[in-house]
Amino acid sequence: MSLATDARGGARRRLPVARTTLHPRYVVWELTLRCDHACTHCGSRAGVARERELSTAEALSVVDELAAMGTGEVILIGGEAYLHEGFLDVVSALREHDITPVMTTGGRGVTPELARAMAQRGMARVSVSVDGLEATHDLMRARRGSFAGALEAIAHVRAAGMIATANTNVNRLNAPDLEALYEALRDAGVEAWQVQITAPLGRAADRPDMMLQPYDLLEIVPRIAALKRRGLREGLLLMPGNNLGYFGPEEGLLRSQDPAHGDHFGGCQAGRFVLGIESDGAVKGCPSLQTASYVGGSLLDRSIREIWDGAPELAFARARTTDDLWGYCASCPYASTCLGGCTFTAHSVLGRPGNNPYCHFRAIDHARRGLRERLEARDAAQGAPFDHGLFEIVVEPLDAPEPARLAREALVTLGRRPAR
Q1: What end-to-end distance do the CA atoms of the chain give, in Å?
Q2: Mode of pairing for the β-strands spanning 297-298 and 73-77
Q3: Which sign does the torsion angle of CA 60, 65, 70, 74 carry?
């Protein structure tokens, strides 16, 4: 998901921490875990509403709190945010408080009528999740017709006058589709496209053979960079998610809206300028962080300000130093800037942050020495939202034979036939 987005849906340049008061500038809010898909890679295992979710009245009170803390943008997610009974009321309240409302959706329920209602209430942008071309997308979304529905949703969003963007989680199933998917999104009128790595969270953790291997970045990142260059020429702004890239030769191009700026990853922003809210009121520093380890409190018991100011579970990135890094990341030349990359991604692989094998620079460094890192699944996830298993890193020759199952078992794991 996007850390910070501008009016076109791309990531804004981060403000230097030294000159900025830490506050929840960007909030990603799961209104409900109820969903009309059951996606095979869903980190939250969405489908059924949580046992206790915030009511409309409680949600409107949260909007008041966010406004008081200086929040500038709220990305409404789910499940599907539009399945919450107060969805449109929350959109209106955000706009009334001068907070930009944005939504990320699978798009199935975004009808022309709903799109018009969203626009009338003040929704600024809608990011539709598109996971590949039709066969791959429908397989990952476990529903025939899902790809067509996503493209229809993009059309309805644009017809209603909102900005349409898209997002894709890249893995071994959909990586072959990237170039053709770019063309499909461009032709559909998408203005910005966020691309990130599928992390082994939730249902994705149940399918380890679906995950990219760290050495896959050697091929995938240059392809994404080529698409970024193409998009700059053709009017589709491609931006990486916070777990893709890191200090390879294309880093400045990938991170920048204007490549002349040469932006780069600046460390995990969870609990610094980013906040995540789960539908039951649980608060954490980033919406994708593991619930069991990073929830700092509940809005049913405490205010956002109390949790933000006082919960150590939200403060970890504010105090992180190179002393918190381990493994390869501890000796990396970019350690003091990167600080181990994306927290939830590293934690989802190795059970704690501070050592992130999904790093382009790291893959290049190993390749220069004729080596690569391969992740072997060790412990399975338990079946809860935002849970994870455990992997171990195997360092082996760069030209080691590819384990056959990594090339073929992902489709078997997922099942070849999506649900009707």
Answers
A1: 28
A2: unpaired
A3: negative
Which CA distances in Å does 156 have to 86, 189, 277?
21, 11, 28
| CB atoms inside a 10 Å sphere around CB 52 | 11
Closest to 75 measured CA to CA, from 245, 203, 241: 241
pLDDT, tens only, 278-306: 999 999 999 999 999 999 999 999 999 99
| Residue 273: closest CA among 7, 13, 8 | 13
Residue 231 CB-density burial (10 A; 0-12 exposed, 13-18 middle, 19+ buried): buried
State the pTM of this model. Answer: 0.90
| 3-state percent breakdown (helix, strand, coil) of the chain, nearest 5 | 40, 15, 45
3-state secondary structure of 324: helix
Q: How far apart are CA 64 and CA 85, in angstroms?
A: 19
Q: Which string of b and e fits 13-29 if b means at least 16 CB within 10 Å?
A: ebeeeeeeeeebbbbbb
Query: CA nearest 375: which of 331, 330, 404, 406?
Result: 406
Residue with tokens 């966020």: 194
Q: pLDDT tens digits, residue range 51-89?
A: 999 999 999 999 999 999 999 999 999 999 999 999 999
Question: How many whole angstroms separate alpha carbon 185 and alpha carbon 216?
Answer: 24
Q: Which two tokens stand for residue 414?
A: 């997922």
- Cα(89)–Cα(62) distance, integer angstroms: 12
Q: Which two tokens stand for residue 381?
A: 């996830």
227 in Cβ contact with 192 (< 8 Å): no
Burial of 195 (0-12, 13-18, 19+ CB in 10 A): buried
* Residue 235: other Cβ atoms inside 10 A: 11
Identify the bridge partners of residue 27 per DSSP, sorted by sequence position. Answer: 74, 275
Q: Say which amino acid occupies 135.
A: A
CB 107 within 8 A of CB 141: no
- How far is the C-alpha of 296 from the C-alpha of 284, rounded, in Å? 6
